[in-house]
Amino acid sequence: MVLFITGCQEDLMPSNDPIESTLVSREGEVIDDLSFTFSDGTSGSISERLSTHDAVVLYFTMWCPICDAHMSHIRNQIQPQYNNVDFIFVDYVSGSIAETMNVQRSSGYTDFDVIADINNELETYFNGTMATTIIIDKNFIVKLNSLFKTGNEIKDKLDTL
Description:
- This protein is 27% helix and 22% strand.
- With 161 residues, it is an alpha/beta fold.
- The chain has one domain (23-158): Glutaredoxin (3-Layer(aba) Sandwich), CATH 3.40.30.10.
- A 5-stranded mixed sheet has the order 5-4-3-6-7.
């Protein structure tokens, strides 16, 4: 008999994660205009995205089943309520633009922009890990910098914009 157990590299229950209290948060800070590369190889920046939206939401994904559940919730339950908000997934684990595109396609998220954080710049800047969710408003103020829990924390912050 063979028993094979697999899972994410990080805590599968982020809402109960004792590490969260030790994470450095940028919530309330005015941030720099960050640049990034998407899975299709195009470039972008926070200022470009905010020029057409009231806020940007970044969700850090490992493409694991937990992240997929969170991203599906964002896609189906949150994004439709906030047409003026730009939702972007951040792949901080794949290591290349091509691999980010590949996993984005195979996971069924071609309808979302995905940042290929191949040099871990966003991961480092926001101390982002699995399920880290960042909300940045028009003034470059970080309104939320925490782990995804139920999605209500995202809605609560977006409702104040």
